[in-house]
Structures are given as structure tokens and as C-alpha cells.
Amino acid sequence: MEPIMQYRIASPADYGQLAHLYWTYASEENDSPEFDENAFTRRFHAFLKACMGVDYICWVAEEAGRIVSVVYIGMLEKMPSLSEERLRIGYVANVFTLPALRNREIAAGLMDTVQDWARTHSFETLFVLPGEKSVPFFERQAFSADNGIMGYSFRKD
Q1: Considering Cα of 146, then 152, then 155, then 157, what sign does the dihedral take?
Q2: Residue 35 counted as domain residue
């Protein structure tokens, strides 16, 4: 019997696993990181303590007590309108699944949960700046490039 996948919002008790997962993600395509994993973990913990629940929320897919996939959402409150409605914009900052568990629809199920949550928590839109390899994933999740969001990038590479 295969363990049941649970989707939930991360808590401070998860920060160690989240740091290791992000280290795995960040080092996957970076051959020469500036930090070793311990130094990065300290830096990432400080980020999580400062930003989680305020500027960011992290959703996790957990199997048998182990976090196997994550979605980080940066949250931006929109300016007040002339109605009582409060709206937010969400930036999908990172989606990552452990390499050995990819192509099992774990991230898709997690992203479905995130989209349902955002829909019921006053988000007007979710947007992403996808890497070339992740465009098909986001297209399958009903993200499109024609939603009227424009941007200016300071990065010219």
C-alpha cells in the first residue's frame, strides 16, 4: 500500500526540510555554489522566519512524514479599491519536487490545491516567471502568457 500524499501549508517545524529541498533545487543546476549547505541552511532559515506568513506562503506535499514537493507563493496586497473587497496578487516563486518522484503528478496535485486556496483567499491572479523547462508544467496548470501582466526586467542575460 502506497503512502497517502498530503497537501498542506508549511509550518516552522518544516523549515529544516524546506531548506534541504531548496538546497537540492538550487544546486541541481549550479556547479559552484557560493555557500556550503550548512551556511545556506542558516541563510534560508532566516529568510523563512522573516517572510513566511507575511510576504510568502509555502505549500508542501508530504508523503509518510517527508516533504517531497513545495510551492512558494509571494503575496502582494493590492491597493484598496472603492469596495470592501481586498485583493491580492500571488507570485509563484518556486515549484520543486524531489527528482526521484517527478512525473507522478505530485506537483500538479499540489498546484491544484494552491490554486483552490488562492481562489478562496482573495487572490486576483497568480503569475510566474517560468524557466524554459517549466513552461509546459504551468501551461498544464492553466497558466497563460496572455493575461495582461507586463514587466520590466533589470536582468539583461
Answers
A1: positive
A2: no
Tell me whether residue 62 is in a domain. yes
Phi-psi region of 30 (alpha: psi -120 to 50; beta: other; left: phi over 0): beta
Torsion of the alpha carbons at 35, 23, 123 and 110, rounded to the nearest 10: 180
Its pTM stands at 0.88
Q: What is the pLDDT of residue 31?
A: 62
Residue carrying the nine cell digits 518522484: 101
Has residue 96 been placed in a domain? Answer: yes
pLDDT, the chain, mean: 88
How many structural domains comprise the chain?
A: 1
**Residue range 42-59, pLDDT digits in tens:** 999 999 999 999 999 999
Q: What is the CATH number of the domain that holds 10?
A: 3.40.630.30
As a whole number, mean pLDDT of residues 139-145 equals: 90
Residue 136 belongs to domain spanning: 5-30+42-140
Quick one: which of 152, 137, 144 has its CA closest to 107? 137
DSSP state of 64: T
Report the distance separating Cα 20 and Cα 37, nearest Å. Answer: 8
pLDDT, residue 85, reads 76
**Residue 105 counted as domain residue:** yes
Nearest C-alpha neighbor of 48 from the set 102, 98, 100, 10: 10
- 91-97 mean pLDDT: 94
